[in-house]
Amino acid sequence: MFRPRPAQARVLAWRGGKMGVSAVPGSGKTATLVALAARLVRAGGLAPGQEVLVVTLVNSAVNNFAARLAQELQDSSDLLPGMVGFRVRTLHGLANDVVKERPGLAGLAEDFRVIDEREARDILQEAVDGWLRGNPEAANDWLGESFQQNRRVLQQNWPELLRDVAGRYIRQAKDEELDADELHTLIRGRGMSLPLADACQAIFESYESGLRYRGGVDFSDLIRLALRVLKSDADYLARLQHRWPWILEDEAQDSSLLQERILRLLAGPRGNWSRVGDPNQAINESFTTASPNFLRDFLEEPDVASYDMPESGRSAPAIFHLANGLIDWSLQHPQPEVRRRRPLEPPYIEPAPPDDPQKNPGNVEGYPHLHYEALTADEERALVLRSLGHWLPQNPDATVAVLLPTNSSGSKLVEQLRAAGLPYRENLSSTDGTRAVAGSLYRTLEYLASPHHSAHLSQVYRVWRRDERDMDEARRSIRRLTGELRRLRRTEDYLWPAPGEDWLDDFCGPDAALQQHLDDFRSVLRRWQEAADLPIDQLLLTIGGDLFRSEAEIAMVWSLAVHLRQFAELYPDARLPEFTAESRQIAAGRRRFLAMGEEDSGFDPELYRGKVVVTTLHKAKGLEWDRVYLMSANTYDFPSAVDGDQYFAERWFVRDDMNLEAEALAQLEALTKGAAYREGEATRGARALLAAERLRLLYVGITRARRELVITWNTGRQGDMGEALPVRALREAMAAERAP
């Protein structure tokens, strides 16, 4: 039985209009929203066909929220849980619903498809490669002089950077509701030289051509086009406003301009719209179009009822004291430009009331522990491993996590945990998600349905090497060989060659290793082709056995096999093309599909008591553990925009330490808003933005710990990194407080 705290009770008392809530970590935000949604479903005066609309950030949150709300409503005999009375969607899911109902108004065919991130990335890379072939000397405008003839930089680093820069330019343009043709007109009429915008614009136009050729839209298009539909059809908008008289927005600190515009339209000027989030946990601003300022500004609007939820029962008082100390330090940040970004602000975290069911844990002597000693990265990992080796046997029923800035640093720690024989569980970005597995199976079925298409052959080769794509050398090899396979005129010359006409003999020549590699791939393809007449579930299990290794992936293959078997029972005439289309819908996120994987159901630390969870700081958001190690708290991973800091967004081969993504966005702003462009200003602004965001990321990391927190730092690859400025300030303040 949910018993609200005083601050939660104020939120639950909402009776309509606009409401904004700033909720600190561990304040029971989700429980409060579930209780609020349940109250509105039961007593919100919903007419037949009306629903409470809940919009949240990611699919795992959708599934978690919907399940909890259905459980809350199960005693309401007049409701059918999960189907009547409420709808929980991500913004992309909501946009897809809108566009699917009115594709014509969005300028789309009825059978349009949503291009997933992986295919969109491939289309973008093709556009970049095409532009580079036509502009082979363009790199000289942006590379440092010593790198302009560097073969590795020109063949690998520069194309990858240009893809990232153009991708960011495209996402921002779409967030501002601009398409490639509109920007082309602006560029032609400009009176200034903007060479980076010229390059990005040419790539944008080529990328859009690639999307049109495939009859698809990307995820950014979905949101932009949904807004277009709502603006174009007043009657349809009115019907949606009637369908969703109550709108609850979760994780509103990660809202974008388009998300805000869509929800404002759906709510209407006098609608019921609640936005709940924590600007102090906005950790996506530097690499997406999200910004905490949309929630901050909303909270300050005169017609918005604004509340804080400052009470939290998650952590020991000493942990909260440290997090609140970080807020105080950020308010006095040594860089005025960072302070203007408002990295961290009150409300401060307060302990739960004494009679609260979730009582705060007590302080543990010696914690938080902020390690002062300068260590190399290897020494830091060794220190953490020794500590875990002592702690785990004494705490077999407790939860523990190691939080790192990047997936690559997490992978290195996992290798050492495995070598040390310590139990662990990865929660890193990987290929374990349902959509990634479904996407791989979709590509394979697509090939088997049309084995004579060389483009499908090249795609299934990429799938076959899916586990290697994070390695630089393998990525180059995959890129080269997929290109060669795509150029095959007759796929049978490779797969089933006539005697003396084997394509491999001519292509590989004396390279025996390459010959063996491609012969192995051919053997796999032949086995799949021979299995193509099996029932669809058996075919998928055959393919899955060759492609996947982890338990999570195998579980998802089984789930997909069961789903397609049921699909076959519903549609007895279905064959490979129909199964391919259905798996594509799942891969694109356009089918509600509950697989046996944590990425969609939500990672639960309680399932891994006595094991070390290794995860990134970004993926740790929303989770908590008894003991937390926060590693690599140095001036590179947590810069403060002061002299001597280095920035991972500034590539070592670019001249003048420029952040080309930031410069491209500044040139886009100059085009669209008439702003002045001065080279380098955007880079300096990006440093302040990154420093502000990394302060929030540090705050998120600290507030994942319930009882014990250990923060360590290393000197980086070159041995020249120092302790992060805010961590040093917190450590010195703690030492002063503990001194007799």
Short description:
This protein is of the alpha/beta class and 740 residues long.
What does this structure look like?
By secondary structure, this protein is α/β, with parallel strands linked by helices. The chain has 30 helices and 16 strands. The chain has a 6-stranded parallel β-sheet, sandwiched between helices. A 6-stranded parallel β-sheet has the order 11-16-15-12-14-13, sandwiched between helices. Strands 4-5 form a two-stranded parallel sheet. Helix 3 links the parallel strand 2 (52-56) and strand 3. The radius of gyration is 27 Å and the shape is globular. The two termini are 45 Å apart. Residues 594-601 have low confidence and may be disordered.
Shape label: globular
Cα distance, first to last residue? 45 Å
What is the structural class? alpha/beta
| β-strand number | 16
Number of helical runs? 30
Q: How much helicity do the residues have?
A: 40-55%
**Largest sheet at a glance?**
6 strands, parallel
Mean pLDDT: 89
Report the sheet-strand fraction.
Answer: 5-15%
